[in-house]
Amino acid sequence: MPEQLQSAVDASMQKTNLILKDIEEAYGWPKSQRHQSYCALRTVLHLLRDRMPVQESVEFAAQLPVVLRGIYFDGWRPMDVPVKLNRDDFLVEVRRQFTYDIKGSTQNLVQVVLNALRNHVTTQGQWDDVKDNMPKDLVRTLP
Question: How many whole angstroms separate alpha carbon 53 and alpha carbon 103?
């Protein structure tokens, strides 16, 4: 693998691991339960992705590390978006797709994941664009 590509992949893995570590620390999961933090991140990313219009979704994805961008677009069907979910429906979908036990509320899990993304991935302008494309009751969940 050319050195420049290897460096980009390494940097992406490093940033992805930082995001997962933040989720684990905020939620109180040990690193040995990385599969849970990954599932939480993937679930929330996919629901955000499917809730946004195509252009906004692509702009958001451009800020993700390469590894997360692949996860983000995995299974995406742009012709089927945006999916109209209010806050309660969004939380129900997170709970349905996140198959592990949740200590506390589903909303807390979503906020932990969104905080990790907000802290490591997006610019303020892009985060504002994400919020602008969400229903008002769901924006309350966003950091």
Answer: 32
